[in-house]
TrEMBL record:
<dbReference type="GO" id="GO:0034475">
    <property type="term" value="P:U4 snRNA 3'-end processing"/>
</dbReference>
<feature type="domain" description="K Homology">
    <location>
        <begin position="151"/>
        <end position="198"/>
    </location>
</feature>
<dbReference type="Pfam" id="PF18311">
    <property type="entry name" value="Rrp40_N"/>
</dbReference>
<dbReference type="InterPro" id="IPR036612">
    <property type="entry name" value="KH_dom_type_1_sf"/>
</dbReference>
<dbReference type="InterPro" id="IPR012340">
    <property type="entry name" value="NA-bd_OB-fold"/>
</dbReference>
<dbReference type="Pfam" id="PF15985">
    <property type="entry name" value="KH_6"/>
</dbReference>
<dbReference type="InterPro" id="IPR004088">
    <property type="entry name" value="KH_dom_type_1"/>
</dbReference>
<dbReference type="GO" id="GO:0071034">
    <property type="term" value="P:CUT catabolic process"/>
</dbReference>
<keyword id="KW-0963">Cytoplasm</keyword>
<dbReference type="Pfam" id="PF21262">
    <property type="entry name" value="RRP40_S1"/>
</dbReference>
<dbReference type="InterPro" id="IPR041054">
    <property type="entry name" value="Rrp40_N_euk"/>
</dbReference>
<dbReference type="GO" id="GO:0000176">
    <property type="term" value="C:nuclear exosome (RNase complex)"/>
</dbReference>
<dbReference type="GO" id="GO:0000467">
    <property type="term" value="P:exonucleolytic trimming to generate mature 3'-end of 5.8S rRNA from tricistronic rRNA transcript (SSU-rRNA, 5.8S rRNA, LSU-rRNA)"/>
</dbReference>
<dbReference type="GO" id="GO:0000177">
    <property type="term" value="C:cytoplasmic exosome (RNase complex)"/>
</dbReference>
<keyword id="KW-0694">RNA-binding</keyword>
<keyword id="KW-0271">Exosome</keyword>
<protein>
    <recommendedName>
        <fullName>Ribosomal RNA-processing protein 40</fullName>
    </recommendedName>
</protein>
Length: 247
């Protein structure tokens, strides 16, 4: 169903997880569209929860509260880190205290170029966008935080990133798991971080053979995921085979 901001969402009255393009009014709890596009609703197998999100063709990422994002640290300002979510867009802020159990004496010391997986915690247009590396439900990491430097970052389309993260019937990651063990962080801003095996492993400043092999698998996995966004699902197996043919 195609909708625009201001339309009523035709969804069931049940527990709802909101995805990109959908906003929940904190006062009224009404769920409304925040972007133009096609409404997608996915109900879990137990019929106890539904995921609602809007699929649009926008290439520009606009941060929304609760979005999961992959960002690159570009500097500091006051008690916060400046983080880039997309090229040619304004940086967002990551407070130095926005980590589990962080204190002024005990907090992560991030450097320029390091990568973080975070959640958009504030998206008020009139002030700076803020992100945090804390799961609000538990107060713990919940998968957020600094990402291993031996991983690899690449970019994909926003709709494709949304499918990888939210669509339970998506086959891309499941098929990749048949080829290698991997860790992945998918950002709704179109950035994906992935690492196969143990990543880059050094001994006496020399890259080990195992580390080099894991990195080759990491590059193959990234190639596979990038290519899959442009082919029909009937060709996914062929893309997987082609991406790993020399390994």
């Amino acid at each position: 169903m195609k909708i625009v901001p201001g339309d009523a969402l035709d969804i069931q009255q049940m527990k709802t997880t909101i995805g990109p393009g959908v906003y929940k009014n904190p006062k009224t709890q009404n769920i409304i569209p925040a972007a133009a596009g096609y409404l997608n609703v996915k109900i879990n197998k137990k019929n106890t929860n539904q995921l609602a999100y809007i699929e649009s063709k926008s290439k520009r990422y606009i941060p929304k509260a609760n979005d999961f994002v992959v960002g690159i640290v570009t500097g500091t300002i006051g008690e916060s880190y400046k983080v880039s979510l997309q090229d040619f867009s304004a940086n967002v802020l990551l407070s130095m205290m926005a980590f589990p159990n962080a204190t002024k004496k005990n907090r992560p010391n991030l450097k320029v170029g390091q990568v973080v997986y975070a959640r958009v915690s504030q998206d008020i247009p009139e002030i700076d966008i803020e992100i945090e590396c804390i799961d609000p439900a538990t107060g713990k990491e919940g998968g957020f935080g600094m990402l291993d430097e031996s991983g690899y970052i690449f970019e994909v389309g926003l709709n494709y990133a949304n499918e990888l993260l939210f669509n339970p019937s998506s086959v891309y990651l499941e098929k990749l798991a048949s080829k290698c063990k991997f860790e992945v962080a998918i950002g709704l801003n179109g950035k994906i971080w992935i690492k196969c095996g143990d990543g880059l492993v050094y001994e006496e400043d020399q890259l080990t053979e195992a580390g080099a092999n894991d990195f080759r698998y990491t590059l193959a996995a990234a190639t596979y995921l990038k290519k899959c966004q442009k082919v029909p699902k009937s060709q996914v197996d062929a893309v997987l085979k082609e991406s790993f043919k020399n390994l």
